[in-house]
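Hey all, sorry for the wall of text incoming. These are the two entities for the joint prediction.
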Amino acid sequence: MDNSIKKQILLAVVAVLLLALPFIASATGYPAMTSLATRALIYGIAAASLNLVLGYGGMVSFGHAAFFGLGGYVVGILYQHYTQDDLFLGLVPGTNQLLVTLPVTLIVCGAAAALIGALSLRTGGVQFIMITLAFAQMLFFLFVSLKTYGGDDGLIIRRTNELFGLKMRDKQTYYYVCLAITAVFFFLLWRLVNSRFGNVLTGLRQNARRMAALGLPAYRYKLVAFIISGMGAGLAGCLMANFLRFASPDMVHWTKSGELMVMVVLGGVGTLFGPLIGAAAYIVLESVLASWTEYWQLGLGFILLFVVLYTNGGIEALFGRLLGRRV
Amino acid sequence: MSGPILSVRGLVKRFGGLVATDGVTIDVRPDEIHALIGPNGAGKTTLISQLVGELRHDAGTIELEGRDIGALPTARRIGLGLGRTFQITCLLPEYTVLDNVATGVQVRQGHSFRFWGNVRGETALRETALSFLETIGLAGRADEQVANLSHGEQKQLELAVALATEPRLLLLDEPMAGLGHSESRQMVALLMALKTKVSMLLVEHDMDAVFALADRISVLVYGRVIATGTADEIRDNADVRAAYLGEGDELC
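and here's what came out:
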């Protein structure tokens, strides 16, 4: 009980800090901090989504950039049709409303994840890693070759999607929108991983043979987890495209899948908030190290090495131990 | 229903040129413990694997309560009333003892597409799981991590988890293997007590246990059943003596 109180206090402190962050940023003279934090939140959602299949379900997907990028392109493509006032495939009108683009992103990414997952989950282990990578790369080359939607150069989204008449272009406003969505996302994820569904998903990672011997048809549970995970990554992509006002094949590139994986490992595989911490650490390290040297990834590599070798479960576990929690 | 619970007819499994299961025909009747013995490499575990569907047989039929289950995947067979324990314990190592059993109860209760409620907070589920642990005598260790259990306790937990799936027929793959003398006797008593609730196909090397428990015994040698009968019939069977009991040190 003592531990759970400690946890709640910690959570409350973090929540207050996150709420106050834009004010702290402008007060301390680092207004860029708000943008940094927005990116950390968005990547946190993407990494936590990946972690659902990777950490909880034991399915190492190396293609989550596919869903991240797809989410971005949904926003971009709908916006382009909105400004050109024509129809996507001659059927669907464009839009600049977040309340439309967000659900559409979830549906599109869910469908894509269902398709990719249905095929990929027939394999396991290294084959699964490779086939998810292959699907993501297929999508990457598709977007590169789609000249209508910017091809190599990507799609510029001139204005952020509208939501309730808020000034979405304002960095602070957008930060709070992302913060709210992140909070809802993690609340849902928290319920999910502690539910019956989460229980069998975690069981499958620990021992698939045992779960089969309990009478669990594994495939459908893995597939549903994969779909939910894809939708989460898509949500992050949608937010990121709105934030950058840009969607490009970069979002779908395999290095993005790698980045997400690094965030998960950095923060803590199979923990609820680990990926969010990992994403924040990654974003901060990237900007700090990159201001020193263009070879910032070398530094990141060493830090990742340290985390993997010595923290025994990522930054989350390191914090846990510092706070005296038994791991 | 008076027919056998499990009825296996002419089961064949080949691995290339090796015939691992060679026309095996075996029955398990209601409330019966049917023991399957045989020297190492006779194909006992291969047979179990085919019964639960981890391996596909090449010929023959497997019927559970009159229903052909030979083409079904493992999970469906378990759902229809097959249960198994593993020779080398196969548990969820990160979960507690209670969580292991509760997960079994949960899967038995139907689909797990429930995303909201906290599974650790479902008292009904926990209590059912605890009752299985009480049956097995492991209730005192309910909150222990599986990794911290002794080998004997893990074997007991295997059994509790299998019972949680409420099987009609239990396939026990060497439940005494690796147990000390007193632990073995405890396990024998446990299985004896369970006999009225569930039929069992018992694969076992421990002859004391087999003779104490089994209503009937089948002897498997080189993938073939060479004899089936009561303990006395098997002891007196000349083929069995020659093929198996005569080999001496296999007995221990």
